[in-house]
Every structure is written in C-alpha cells, then in structure tokens.
Amino acid sequence: MAESSVPAAAPAQETEPCTMRQLLLYFLSLGTFGFGGPIALAGYMQRDLVERRRWISKQDYLEGLALAQLAPGPLAAQLAIYLGWVRARVLGATLVACAFVAPSLLMVLAVSALYVAYGGLPWMQGLFYGIGAAVIAIIARSAVKLVKMTLARDWLLWGIFAVSALVTAWTESEIVWVFLLSGVVSMLVRTPFWRGTSALSIFPAHWLLAGLDGPATIPVLLKILWFFTGAGAVVFGSGLAIVPFLHGGVVNDFHWLDERQFLDAVAVAMITPGPVVITVGFIGYLVAGLAGALVAALGVFLPCYLFVIIPAPYYRRWARIPQIKSFVDGVTAAATGAIAGAAYVLGRRAVVDVATAAIFVATLVVLTKVRKIPEPLVILAAGAAGLAVRGFAH
Length: 394
Fold this sequence. Notes:
By secondary structure, the chain is an all-alpha fold. The protein is 75% helix and 2% strand. A two-stranded antiparallel ribbon has the order 1-2. A two-stranded antiparallel sheet has the order 3-4.
C-alpha cells in the first residue's frame, strides 16, 4: 500500500499526519494484543491515537464514542470503524474494520478447532480466574481516564454520568433510552432551541467444516446468519449487553450449546485480544465448523459497519451545531457512566475471593505506577497466577 499521507477530515484540533499503512498497522496490533474488552479497547484508542500520536483529534474521538454508543453493535469495533472513516472515509473504515477484527477471529478459529478436536479446554477456567480480575483493573483505569477527558467540571454531565452508572449497575445492562434521554436533557439545558440555531468449499477437510454435531447444513447456516445479524443490529454497547442476548438464543432458544460450552465461549473471548463480541466466531464454529464461524462473524459485524459508515457523513456535518454538540456531550457522559457501571457489574463476578482481589489490586498498581509495562504482559501474568492458584487449590 502506498505511503501517501491520509488527510484528516476537518479535525477539531491540530493533529499529526499518518499514512494508511501506519493506521492499519496500529489497528492490526490492537486487534492482536488489545486485551480487556470494549471499554479497555476504547481506552487504548484514546491513549494511543489521541494523546500520544495525535493522529485523531479529541473531538473526533468523542464524537466517535458517542456514535458507537448510539448505534447498535459492538462498541470497540464501531469506534475503530469511525476513526478509520475520519482518516480516509469508506475505504479507511473498511480497511480498519478488517485489520481490527481479523487477528482475534483467526485466534478464535484456532482455539475452536482445538476445542472441537479434543473435547473442551478445562485449563481455560484457571486462566479466566486470574485474567478476569486483571481485566476489571484495566476497565476501571480506562473508565477513570474517560471521566477526566469527557466530564471536566460540568455539573450537568456529572449528574448524567451518575444516573447512567447507577442504572447500568442496577439493571446489569446498557439501555439505549438512557443515552438518548441524556442527550436530550443536555441539549435542552445547555443549548435550548429558543436561543436560536443553524442547520467456503476451498477447505475440504471434514474437521474444518463440521461442528460438535457434524457437518453443517445450509438451513443451519442461514439460521446462524439470521440470528447473529439480529444480535449485531439490536444489541447496544459492550459485551456486557450482548452476552445475555446470545445466551438466550444459543442456549435457550436454539439449543446449539449447553451452559458449559457457552461459558467456555465467553472465556475464549476474554482470554483472546480484540473485541469481546468475537465470541460469536467460537459459537459459530461449535455449531457448524469454519463455515458457521465465518457466517456468525459476518452477521454480527456487518450491521455495526453499516450503522457507522452510512450516518457518518451527516453525523460529522451536524455534530458542530450547538444543540447537536450538547446532545452528543450528554450521550457521551451517559456512555461514560455506563462504562463505570459495567465495571462494577463485571467486577462483582470476577473479583470473588482474596486471590482475585489481590490480582485486581496488583494489576491496578502496576498499570498506574509502572507505565511502560504492556497490558498483554500483565494479562498473561494474571492468567499464570490464576492457573497457579487454581492448581494449588485442587
């Protein structure tokens, strides 16, 4: 790919130039080494692209975060797609989406093949025991940084943040109407309208095409495509929201997997880098082999891609109108509150005893005090600690 510089689209502050190759290599790296789920991934993008490299303006990042919360689908993937669109429109969005999703999808396919071939991964629970606590520390740190960046000393945004955090913690889900109402409240309080405004056959090997129950049929593949496209089109926010939706369909409605297999699927998503929603690739593989994994991934990511690139030109054009900007500020504050609430909900499930509490505190201290240690290394150390504790306990 040519090394020509890709111009930024009307940045809200001065940014540094970057090439498409540099941008794609970054998202390829993030998809390969970015642990922690959607909240942590959004925090990495803020740190790397806005604060350190200055390839993306703060305003563009915040607008992308708000759009990712307003549109259904996985938050981190939508934010990445929007940032790709900011730098190179539809081509940039498409290439960034592929670079960001491909590494974790390939990892999940490899783990899925081993899972089907050898009948489960019992060691995974030991890894998840330690990794889960470390992930909560990463999420908490990202939430604090987002609070500092988005709320400042605005009492209205702090109020919206608090309400959204409480609602998320209480309901254990992210509710789109909270985001929309928060945007309306911010708009009406800060910039009311009355003040005035302006306008697969290439893989013949049987084990690659077969799931736990044998080779897939066309009707099963179509059902997988329909279900996961629906999941990508109606579920908002992070993996916290999509996991209950997937459980209801995969375990309760279609009976594709049992409870143990579904929990293994969630664990695979958490111990591999990239977006948590990549768990759909593991589920699809268990149901219908490689074809099922690819169809499930296509189904869940296609809606979020379209929900970003279709409204993006109009969204950016109108985002700087005072009323729209106030609306986006309110939605962003609500999104930050939901992130804090999600950290609390996930923390209750991951930090369950003295050992996990110790891993959580140690991870938080390391990430805060020792700035140069990469997060993947911390995650691996936490997983090793979890395996050691579980092995000793048993």
